[in-house]
Design brief:
By secondary structure, the protein is an alpha+beta fold. The chain is built from six helices and four strands. Helix 1 (75-89) runs antiparallel to helix 2.
């Protein structure tokens, strides 16, 4: 021991080098996700009509790097979540409440779109296998947040069973992250 506090060794020559020999960890890109690099962009309208909108000026935003799914969550991926929570939580919460809170509302086809295919999409869009790879629609913000939590727990339970470190939490992108990713590297 050297000094009044102990520690130190002949290998570190009295410098702060951190604890040596710790097990390493490597960040892997989760399946189906892409890396969105850090960057700066101008958030707001791309084609600003100055005469009509003096209140909506663009602002410069800097975003840290993050991961984002390369496509929307599909009906089939969301169905995996619904079936898992029905299996795990139906005894405690009840199937009716789970379906009311988390099941996608396909009536958005009729309510939100003037020119729609009407009843066929409303009835079959989520349930028919032909639409398995289509984006899930009619999911509430609360359900999407709960899906993100479930997805994190699902992945980390698998990783823990294999002796791997847990991955960071999945979450919804912020408005700025969404706009930055949607611009595809273009500014203004």
């Amino acid at each position: 021991s050297c000094g009044p506090f102990g520690g130190g060794s002949s290998d570190d020559q009295g410098t702060l080098v951190g604890v040596q020999g710790r097990e390493g960890w490597e960040m892997t890109v989760p399946y189906g996700m892409v890396t969105i690099p850090a960057g700066t962009f101008h958030m707001g309208q791309a084609d600003q009509d100055v005469a009509a909108t003096q209140i909506n000026f663009n602002k410069q935003i800097t975003i840290g790097g993050f991961y984002m799914d390369d496509t929307e969550i599909t009906n089939n991926e969301y169905r995996q979540f619904i079936e898992a929570i029905l299996e795990d939580s139906v005894q405690m919460v009840g199937e009716e409440e789970i379906m009311q809170r988390y099941y996608p509302d396909t009536t958005v086809w009729v309510r939100d779109f003037s020119h729609h295919m009407g009843d066929p999409l409303m009835v079959y869009y989520y349930s028919h296998p032909a639409f398995d790879d289509y984006p899930v629609v009619g999911v509430s913000w609360e359900a999407a947040k709960y899906f993100s939590r479930w997805r994190t727990d699902y992945l980390n339970a698998y990783r823990e069973g294999r002796g791997l470190f847990p991955m960071p939490n999945f979450r919804l992108p912020s408005e700025a992250e969404w706009e930055y990713a949607a611009r595809g590297g273009r500014d203004r």
